[in-house]
Amino acid sequence: MTVAETTPRGGSGAMFDRIAARYDLLNKLISFGLDKRWRRKLVELLQHPVAAAPATAEILDVATGTADVALAVARAFPEARLTGLDPSAGMLEVGRQKVTAAGLDDRVTLVQGDAQQMPFDDDRFAAACISFGIRNVPDRARGLAEMARVVRPGGRVVILELGEPRGGIAAPFARLHVHAVVPMLGALLSGAEEYRYLRRSVAAFPPPEQFSAMMHDAGLRDVRVARMSFGAAHLFSGDV
Known about the structure:
Layout: H1 3-6, H2 13-19, H3 23-30, H4 35-52, E1 58-62, H5 68-76, E2 81-86, H6 89-101, E3 108-112, E4 125-131, H7 140-150, E5 151-162, H8 171-189, H9 192-204, H10 208-217, E6 221-228, E7 233-239
Parallel strand pairs: 1-2, 1-4, 2-3, 4-5
Antiparallel strand pairs: 5-7, 6-7
Helix pairs in contact: 8-9
């Protein structure tokens, strides 16, 4: 068996299986602890469609990973039910432990699956979100179309994603962090190759205006984008 056959594809479920145990710590270090604040903003954007839905609304968290976002959404909307979808069995196992520890097994369900071909009916969810995950979907346009498909009319899709700052006084420092600090932390705490992939994937992610156009092409309307922390991340939303 060759090295190419044994090395997980960048961004694949198998790649994330290898870093699942340290993923939460790495997220905090890589984002300077800002990931929690960014997630709070994501939850705020879900409030309107969830409030307008029936009390038993279902919300989908795509690329749920270790379920941090699913748990934050479940706490924000005590009547809602959450489904988290992720391709990595290792990440989902960590997530299930956290769901059980939070006493939310009755409202949060984690499912292994592909964002490009979701195992859900049309118009099932009141809203869907994806945090730091759309970058890893090989066919982003298809992933966006799938989120639009499974969210009912009047619902919303919210996307939080890292980006490489391209302007402003802090941009050079943020780029240094992505290109030098992130791979170093990854090598120390997990695997160097996985975090070289992270650096490459952040640098390759399309500019906000281009990604917003992809969302519109996927069938989402009233697409909005908010720049977070000097452009280190962006929060996108679109209605169905």
